[in-house]
């Protein structure tokens, strides 16, 4: 649907009079800049008509009734971390959910209701002191609802599944302003689609209920660095890690980040089991790495001390990097991969060598999946990627100085080419990250959601958002 470009200021002001709790911010106002500033990717070109900051589900209902009646496009800003920047749409009304940040834990049932403005850190800060944790992301400022709508994996996922596998119910407001609770008991089809394809735009999720898991006091976890490391050695390291990960225990998770320009590598490791078990199952491997590649860089640490010996609490591990770095321009691309075959490793290392110089190095991420994630049936919900062992991502970064020097194009192109060169090996792309540079929209959507599911996604879209007020071009079915 093409939305009429009309000046809605007058009606917006009238709407706010009806809802005194609802903060509205128009272009030029400080609160507008504040909401714009919550995007992880710099995005100067998308200027929404207005930001609304609801405090209650009723506020959300009112905005959506108004938007539908006036055929205005709506987008939703959660934690702002979508690498595609789809939370803010040009000329749309944007619901900035940051003021809905309540968490309600029930320790008896080990569950929590989490509102749409809550981020990873907020949730860990409330659950972990009670000895409980949700399956959560590994970046503190990612929004919990946005994370869950696309799948959601973290350091607990290889033993406990994805966020979608641990989500019990969602409260959602549909395009016409109707409040619905979707679960396996009611609105089952909507619940199915929200868990994996929620970002296609079926409504605004105002809160969701998650399962919580009992935490141990201490875990083995840290990061080791080899910077610089030659590409020959990096290739060898990937072969060694790939061999180990092929049959690694579910408790073991690695996130491997190859860094361009220097080049080098940072590897996060975490053992989701008793530290005494890690002594037999993970640490011998880490020691074998040291023997083969030499002592890792000085900044390699477990959270509290020598890099492979100390233990950490879960929350300390989750929050070990503190505040997020300064904002830059970014482009991510992604692909799910099976084994890291010699051919895949060759492509990755070649692309690492080809990376253009910019003020910041770019990154190639390889995050280990599998385990419990892959034991769920691919039709249990709209997240279909149950056969992948790794999530690959190419993350290009550049600054305003690079823009001024004309380097930005090369950075973007590098991310695109890196992903495209892996397309023949790709098992799909992660809707929470980005596409893989497919040639057509149909291929892109099939890679996100699986060919067999597209028709079902369309039918549900027609049912819950017939006017397409939540539709964004990237996910248009
Ligand atoms: C640095 C970084 C680290 C990351 N780490 C991980 C990780 O460890 N694991 C992982 O699985 N993913 C990770 N991600 C990806 C992240 O989970 C997704 O980008 C997620 O969609 C971000 O949600 P958000 O609310 O922060 O972002 P937003 O940009 O605000 O929202 C993302 C999308 O969801 C929609 N949305 C958000 N809230 C709602 C709502 N309440 N109702 C309806 N639609 C909504 C938005 O419109 C947008 O399309 C990471 C991303 C970054 C940038």
The count of strands amounts to: 19
Rounded average pLDDT: 93
Class by helix and strand content? alpha+beta
End-to-end Cα distance? 12 Å
Largest sheet: 8 strands, antiparallel
Helix content: 25-40%
Q: Beta-sheet strand percentage?
A: 15-25%
Rg, alpha carbons: 22 Å
Low-confidence stretches: none
Bound molecules: flavin-adenine dinucleotide
Shape: globular
Query: What is the number of helical segments per DSSP (H or I, 4+ residues)?
Result: 16
Q: What can you see in these coordinates?
A:
The protein is an alpha+beta fold and 477 residues long. The chain contains 16 helices and 19 strands. It has helices at 9-18, 30-36, 57-69, 120-127, 144-149, 157-160, 188-197, 231-245, 275-281, 283-293, 314-318, 342-354, 400-405, 408-422, 441-449, 454-464; strands at 23-26, 50-53, 74-77, 93-96, 103-106, 111-115, 132-133, 167-173, 179-183, 204-211, 213-214, 219-226, 252-259, 264-271, 301-302, 311-312, 329-337, 363-368, 390-398. Strands 12, 13, 14, 15, 16, 17, 18 and 19 form an 8-stranded antiparallel β-sheet that branches. Strands 5-6-10-8-9 form a 5-stranded antiparallel β-sheet. The protein has a 4-stranded mixed β-sheet with strand order 1-2-4-3, with helices on both faces. Strand 8 (167-173) and strand 9 (179-183) form a beta hairpin. Helix 8 runs antiparallel to helix 12 (342-354) and helix 12 runs antiparallel to helix 14 (408-422). The longest helix is centred in the middle third of the chain and has 15 residues, at 231-245. The radius of gyration is 22 Å and the shape is globular. The protein starts with 8 loop residues before the first helix and ends in a 13-residue tail after the last helix. 49% of the residues are buried. The model has no long low-confidence stretch (mean pLDDT 93). The site of flavin-adenine dinucleotide (FAD) has 33 residues, from strand 3, helix 5 and strand 10. Residues 44-215 form the FAD-binding PCMH-type domain. Pfam families: BBE, FAD_binding_4.
């Amino acid at each position: 649907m093409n939305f009429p470009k009309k000046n809605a200021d007058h009606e917006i002001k009238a709407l706010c009079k009806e809802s005194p709790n609802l903060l509205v911010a128009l272009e030029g106002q400080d609160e507008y800049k504040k909401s714009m500033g919550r995007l992880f990717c710099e995005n100067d070109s998308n200027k929404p008509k207005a930001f609304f900051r609801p405090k209650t589900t009723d506020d959300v209902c009112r905005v959506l009734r108004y938007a539908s009646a006036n055929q205005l496009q709506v987008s939703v800003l959660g934690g702002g971390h979508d690498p595609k920047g789809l939370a803010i749409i040009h000329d749309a009304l944007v619901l900035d959910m940051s003021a809905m940040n309540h968490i309600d834990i029930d320790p008896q049932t080990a569950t929590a209701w989490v509102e749409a403005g809550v981020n990873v850190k907020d949730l860990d800060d409330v659950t972990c002191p009670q000895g409980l944790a949700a399956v959560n992301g590994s970046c503190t400022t990612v929004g919990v609802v946005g994370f869950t709508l696309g799948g959601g994996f973290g350091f607990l996922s290889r033993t406990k599944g994805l966020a979608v596998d641990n989500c019990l119910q969602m409260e959602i407001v549909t395009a016409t302003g109707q409040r619905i609770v979707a679960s396996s008991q009611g609105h089952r089809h909507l619940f199915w689609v929200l868990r994996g394809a929620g970002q296609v735009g079926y409504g605004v999720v105002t809160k969701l209920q998650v399962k919580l898991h009992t935490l141990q006091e201490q875990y083995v976890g840290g990061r080791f660095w080899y910077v610089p490391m030659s590409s020959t050695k990096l290739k060898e390291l990937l072969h060694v890690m790939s061999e180990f990960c092929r049959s690694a225990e579910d408790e073991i998770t690695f996130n491997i980040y190859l860094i361009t320009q220097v080049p080098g590598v940072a590897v996060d490791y975490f053992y989701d089991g008793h530290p005494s078990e890690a002594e037999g199952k993970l640490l011998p491997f880490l020691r074998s790495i040291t023997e083969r590649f030499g002592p890792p860089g000085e900044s390699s640490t477990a959270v509290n001390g020598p890099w492979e010996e100390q233990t950490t609490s879960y929350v300390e591990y989750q929050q070990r990097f503190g505040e997020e770095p300064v904002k830059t321009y970014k482009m991510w691309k992604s692909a799910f991969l099976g084994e890291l075959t010699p051919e895949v490793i060759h492509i990755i290392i070649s692309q690492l060598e080809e990376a253009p110089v910019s003020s910041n190095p770019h990154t190639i991420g390889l995050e280990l999946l599998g385990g419990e994630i892959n034991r769920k049936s691919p039709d249990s919900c709209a997240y279909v990627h149950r056969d992948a062992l790794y999530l690959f991502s190419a993350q290009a970064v550049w600054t305003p100085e690079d823009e001024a020097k004309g380097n930005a194009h090369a950075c973007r192109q590098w991310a695109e080419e890196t992903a495209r060169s892996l397309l023949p090996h790709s098992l799909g792309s992660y809707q929470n990250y980005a596409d893989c540079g497919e040639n057509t929209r149909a291929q892109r959507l099939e890679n996100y959601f699986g060919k067999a599911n597209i028709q079902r996604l369309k039918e549900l879209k027609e049912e819950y958002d017939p006017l397409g007020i939540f539709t964004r071009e990237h996910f248009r079915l």
